[in-house]
Amino acid sequence: MIERRTMPWWPDVLLLAAFGALTVALIQGHLLTLDQRVADWAIGHQPRIPYWTARVLNYLGQGGQVLTPVGLILTGLLVYRTRSVRALFPFLAAYVVTYLTIGPMKLYFDRAAPRYKGPFKTEMFNPVASGSDSRSFPSGHMGNSLVWYAVFAILAAALLRRTLTRWESFAIRVLPVAIVFVTTVYTGFHWLTDSVAGLLLGLVLARLVERIRWDAIPLPRRPWTGPAF
């Protein structure tokens, strides 16, 4: 089992408090002008090459097209190596924590995306937007990216059978998320505050997944329930 240091809870409390404060501020109508100005600048400065470069790089945060397939490949490799059902747990955990939080919040807060053409598009609880046009807050790109790249780091460390170096961790966990943040705002897929909210919530969910001691989860003693991490 790869040793991991104990993580304190106080950063999670601060992150959740910041997420709550940002959400309340948006509901009360604050920061909407900032969002609109950032979106107007981004949409108004999109030459063909920079825009399409950002569109391609933004796929680093696409769940079904990139994150899930990569997660399946890494999980499959670890299952093959360890012959343990425990290798499936991080992949399943990523789905559970994002499905139970980010998805319902998007539906509840009902905020339109920057490219929405109807009224009240910066406001929370938009009374006229519907479907995919009203699922902007919090940014699923950001929240999903933080959770999935944390899982990739867990799986990579297990496959390498060692703790990742600082640069390896940066390349897997930080760099892709930073790229997704910038490109998501620049392309107009999300408001700036959507991405900040996704970042705050995603950090909490990623830290929650990292806390789990996968090999310590109680299971019946079987050949396929042995250690994997």
How is the topology of this model organized?
Blueprint (H helix, E strand, L loop, with lengths): L9 H18 L4 H13 L3 H10 L5 H20 L6 H11 L2 H8 L30 H21 L5 H21 L5 H20 L18
Describe the structure.
With 229 residues, the chain is an all-alpha fold. The protein has one domain. Helix content is 62%, strand content 0%. The chain has 9 helices and no strands. The longest helix is centred in the middle third of the chain and has 21 residues. The radius of gyration is 19 Å and the shape is elongated.
Taking pLDDT < 50 over at least 5 consecutive residues as the criterion, the unreliable ranges are: none
Summarize model confidence as the mean pLDDT. 90
- Between the first and last Cα atoms, what is the distance in angstroms? 5 Å
Largest sheet: none
Question: Count of DSSP helices?
Answer: 9
Helical percentage: 55-70%
**SSE pattern, N- to C-terminal:** HHHHHHHHH
Structural class: mainly alpha
Oligomer: single chain
Number of domains: 1
Rg over CA atoms, rounded to whole Å, is 19 Å
Q: What characteristic shape results from the CA principal axes?
A: elongated
Percentage beta strand: under 5%
Number of strands: 0
